[in-house]
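Translate sequence into structure tokens.
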Amino acid sequence: MKNKYNKFLTILFILIIIGLVILVGFWIYDKYQAKTVTKDATSAVDEFLELVGATNVDSISGVEDGNAQVDSETGQSEDNQNGEATSKTSSKKKNTSSKKNNSTASYSPTYKGFPMVGTIEIPKTRIKYPILAEVTKKSIEKSVAVFYSPGLNQVGNTIIMGHNYRNGLFFSKNKNLEIGDKIYITDLNGNRLEYTIYDKYETSESDSSYLTLETNGTIEVTLATCTDYDTSRRIIIRARA
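Result follows.
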């Protein structure tokens, strides 16, 4: 009887060890996948921004690389103290941007085999993702995608959807966003707009009201994803340019 009991404990111990190994394996795979996807997405976004000639902004810190330094005594920027220098610099930037935009007039980027229409960056959650042209079962396994849009950065309400994964990918951290936080969206023409979040709420998957909201002539974006605890619930983020 004692031998049978010891054998049972041995088998149970082995099963527990196997279970722990499997759990650790899943955890490592999740972390590896998140790191790989994040690296690929960031590279794709950076390449896109360079090709379309978008304003070079450090969206994580919220500081534009081209900003002039402010003089602590006068309160004026160094460039503004020299109007001629400002004019030349501004002209040079405009010409450079114009050349890049002209060269990308027929630019049709893809990401992981899916058409790409722009990029999204959210400093608060430290994400940079390509925006894919259409929500499909496969496309939103690769990045975030457009469910409906009058055109990125155009008047109306652009709806972007993304998964909420336990490894933190895509819109998994949208729950941490708050009113006043910023979202940056760049389109195929190199136009980069800053959006400010003005509404955040939770609703059911059967509620489609956010899909048809009027913007009264403003440029808006709506981000939609599932909640952590219930895939039938949605976290809706609304932001205005």
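Note: The longest strand covers residues 192-204.
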